[in-house]
Amino acid sequence: MTSIDVRDLTKEYGARRAVDGLTFSVPPGRVTGFLGPNGAGKSTTMRLVLGLDRPTSGTATIGGRPYGALHTPLRHVGALLDAGAAHGSRTARDHLRILAASNRIPVRRVDAVLAETGLAGVAGRRVRTFSLGMRQRLGIAAALLGEPEVVLLDEPANGLDPEGIVWIRTLLRRLAAQGRAVLVSSHLMNETAAFADHLVVLGRGRLLADTPVKDFIHARVRPDVRVRTTEPGALGDLLTRHGYDASRAADGTWTVRHARVDELGPLLAEANIPVLELAAQEATLEQAYLDLTASEAEFTALSQEA
Amino acid sequence: MPFAPALHAEWIKIRTLRSLLSALAAMLLATAAFAALATAEADGGDADPLFSVFFGISFGQIAAIAFGTTAVSAEFRNGALGVTLAALPDRLRWFAAKATAIALPTLGVGLLTGLATLLVGKAVLGDSGPSWGQGLRGAVGCGLHLTLMALFAAGLAAVLRSGTATLSVLIPFLLIVSFVVGDLSGGVADFLPDRAGQVALHSDGDGTLGPWGGLAVSALWTGAALFAGAWCVRRRDA
């Protein structure tokens, strides 16, 4: 079983630190979501893992070895970095045949991944005629070509239609279930939470969180509770007495922040306040993620000034 | 990782791009066609019969340069190099495979070009044409010269990382600098990369360089360009 190990990884472009002392692991058998705003260093980290860029310091290894030491790398690591990378004048099949030849992968794998990604019918068409979604599928086909134990995909859901997004979720879950280490980057939290088991969150090249998705939700997503009653005034007094932070909307509905229905329900019953509605309102996962990255987001300050 | 799979992959890349195959065809057609035209016009007494046959090389070499440039610059578009180097992390091995995959078809088509040009020239000129000995030397020189020019362009394209930049440097250089300076003749001009290789296409070796010496000078230029290209490919982030 192979994992990706990133240790104290730093990459500087001139004076700018794109990746800053990053340490995390991507173990086999689960999908690790790689999150961060644009410019947080996700793509750079992936390029460093693949040996395309040289780190300023630190290491990135696959199963303990640097990428450059792998003899037939496509049989160990499959990557999608840029869906536009296939030459527009070549057919999808020729693009994959070139990669297969370079790592002595049998040609039947080319047809297998074309079928798996739903491109079999357009394999003979020039890539130039493909939509962004089809190019993403071709990039994913290339990543799966060598049946690798490690899969890295940079924003694979970009440009996919709803059906394609469901497809990629299923695919990612299956790859992890087969025991592969899967790292998938995205800048959208909700999308990532739909398929990831674990989250690695970056901001300005630094590690902000390295945690299971469940823990992230539990620790950071604070629910609100919505209460509707026939006696809004009495409810307001009760909430204030118990130190709740609550606000009343024009229609008389109260929203109680950082509360749970299990504590409010009994309280209302005890005070004999007739309840018309009592509902938990999950603050979105997306909001929790934005809160985490807001202070680190590269472009926040700029857009506020503008 | 052995060299053969890398070469195999680079070879498929070349034969699956129509623009590259067109460049090789243009190389043959331009050189041979201009031979027929130029020969018919050059009826003067002191004209060089061998070079009048191979006059079209000035145009054929532009096609050779386009071939070498495009084969390399295609890697520098839209992150294609990332895909290539993820499959072949040994960058020097990859660049050697790329250069070989450029050299072999250019040499093959180049020798064919030389032979076809010679046959056209002999047919048009008849007895006033070059001798078979000279002519065959010209045909081989033509094939080698075109190959060296394609590789020179390939090396430069790897340094500049852009097809447009490479052609913007090389084509004005060939059409203007080399043409003008070359007509002033002799001395330094004979050592320019394209002029040196073309010595083999002239009947009389009256310059400083003989035909093979000229090709050797051209090969030095090409070697330097490939070395610089390999250095850049190895050192820079992909």
UniProtKB/TrEMBL annotation, chain A:
It comes from Streptomyces pyxinicus. SUPFAM superfamilies: P-loop containing nucleoside triphosphate hydrolases. Pfam families: ABC_tran (PF00005). Keywords: ATP-binding, Nucleotide-binding, Transport. Belongs to the ABC transporter superfamily. This is ATP-binding cassette domain-containing protein. Residues 4-229 form the ABC transporter domain. GO terms for molecular function: ATP binding. The keyword Lipid metabolism does not apply. The keyword DNA repair does not apply.
UniProtKB/TrEMBL annotation, chain B:
Residues 1-35 form the signal peptide. The chain crosses the membrane at residues 50-74, 95-118, 138-160, 167-189, 209-233. Keywords: Membrane, Signal, Transmembrane, Transmembrane helix. The keyword Aminoacyl-tRNA synthetase does not apply. It comes from the Bacteria. This is ABC transporter permease. The lineage of its organism: Bacteria, Bacillati, Actinomycetota, Actinomycetes, Kitasatosporales.
